[in-house]
Amino acid sequence: MSDIVVEEASARDEARWHADWLERRGEQWRRQGLVDADVAGHVDRLDRMRADTALHPVWTLRATGPSGDAETVGYVAAGGRTDPAGRRALLYDIWVRPDLRRRGIASAARAHVEDWARANDLPRVGTTIDPNDPAQAALFGSYTVTAQHMQRTLDEPPDLPEGLVGRAMTEAEFPAWREQDVAGYADEIAVGRALSPEEALAQANAEFDELLPDGPATAQHSIWVLETGDEPPGRTYSAVIWLRHHLEAGRAFVFGVSVVPERRGRGLGRAVMRLGERAVLAAGDSVLALNVFGPNTPAINLYTSLGYHVTDQSRVRELTT
Question: Do 58 and 158 lie in a common domain?
């Protein structure tokens, strides 16, 4: 097969790619256990996000086959976006014909998107991959992991270690916790979203205001604290977990986990996760999911040891001129 030629997709090729892309993404979410209604919602949001970008080209990958005729060997799609995270290119998809994989075609497609980003003054390229697919992990091995989604299917409510007590956060405890958690979240998204400290703090405050308008009494949310019986002076608990129940059918999400600095290194992160799992099962969900921002190896190791597995990763590459 000859060298790869990347050309703007015809309307027919783009329509073919588009339908196949949405179907493949939907199947990925189904493999994660989402029901059809939630899969449809994810697919619709993804499609609208792409349509809303000012630039969202699709290219056809072609090469000369054994017969001497040009053949379509794949597609690549990207987008350009400007938002609080800055100007960047989004690499939505690379698809290569199954019988022609492992021949460098996907690498050529990735390089084309990076060149297109440079030409359009987009200083970084971001993408989402399934890290359980060795081909995807290798193709984007030079990209930095900025966030990863993890989840676990729950069965029986786990026991808490002896001597620990879990309870709901009180209204009086909420303001101080909110201030500290906003600061911690801002630090995380500053890395994960490539924001300045000021931008990250503003975004964190806005998101907390939107998510918890009624504090700990906000519908479908619960905030649980863990008491050890020997809390540091001035503190009424040693660890906390914030949950969003029924985010999708049968699925809850961890919005925040923290252990007070004076009590770290005592296994309380593991214990408060178990407290959260008990609350999730009591609320009627059976899957608990979470995001880890940036290269937070201790958090990833903790969740992995608890049985959580990575379902997708966000990766980014800063481009040089």
Answer: no
Rounded mean pLDDT of 9-18? Answer: 97
Torsion sign (Cα): 195, 196, 202, 208: positive
The answer to whether residues 24 and 109 belong to one domain is yes
Mean pLDDT, residues 237-243: 97
pTM above 0.70, yes or no: yes
Rg for the chain (alpha carbons), in Å? 22
- CATH number of 191's domain: 3.40.630.30
As a whole number of angstroms, the distance between CA 301 and CA 148 comes to 13
Residue ranges making up the domain that contains 83: 5-132
Q: Give the model confidence (pLDDT) of 283-307 as tens digits.
A: 999 999 999 987 788 899 999 999 9
